[in-house]
Design goal:
Elements lengths: L1 E3 L13 E5 L2 E4 L12 H17 L5 H10 L13 H9 L7
């Protein structure tokens, strides 16, 4: 499997970093990253997933309450450069179709 850095479009940066995966073995590609690491990405992904998962499980709970509960679990000491705003997470909740799992 072939993995590419996600910084490839927009922002004026095109990162050519790649990794090849064969089973459990990962091999670096020819190029290294040409940008600083994005802090808070794993936290942002976790928050989005938590909001989506809870929105499906709690259809009749207010979106703001679902988002507030998800944000409570965030480590306040960690860098949060890429965490979506509260308003954006509420919008994520509003785009979850009812009856989906």
């Amino acid at each position: 499997m072939y993995w590419e850095c996600t910084i490839r479009r927009g922002r004026g940066i095109r990162c050519a970093a790649t990794v090849t995966q064969r089973g459990e073995q990962f091999t670096h590609g020819r190029s290294s990253h040409n940008h600083a690491p994005q802090t808070g990405i794993s936290t942002a992904v976790h928050l989005r997933d938590c909001v989506r998962r809870n929105a499906r499980a709690e259809m009749f709970t207010a979106a703001s309450a679902i988002v507030s509960n998800a944000v409570k679990d965030v480590d306040q000491e960690a860098p949060h450069d890429n965490i979506p705003t509260i308003d954006n997470m509420v919008r994520i909740r509003h785009f979850i179709p009812f009856g989906t799992t």
